[in-house]
Amino acid sequence: MTEEQYLSEIELEKKLLSGLMLDGGVAVPEAARVLKPDDFYRPEHRLIFKALLELSGQGAAIDVLLVESALRKSGDLKRVTRQYLFGLLPLEYTAARVPYYSELVKENARLRRLEEIGHELANEASRDSAKSTEVLAGVEKKLLATTADDTREVIAAKDLFLETISELDKETSGLATGFYALDKKLGGLKKSDLIILAARPSMGKTALAMNIAAKVARQNTVLVFSLEMSRWQLAWRFYSADSHVNATRIQNRTLTPLTQGEVSALINSLEQLAELKLYIDDTSSIMLTEIKMKARRIKRKFGLDLIILDYLQLVECGKRYAGNRVQEVSELSRGLKGLARELDIPILALSQLSRNVEMRAEKRPQLSDLRESGSIEQDADIVLFLYREEYYNREEPSNIAELIIAKNRNGATGSVPLKFEREFVLFDNLTREDYS
Question: Does the pLDDT of residue 148 top 90, yes or no?
Answer without folding.
Answer: no
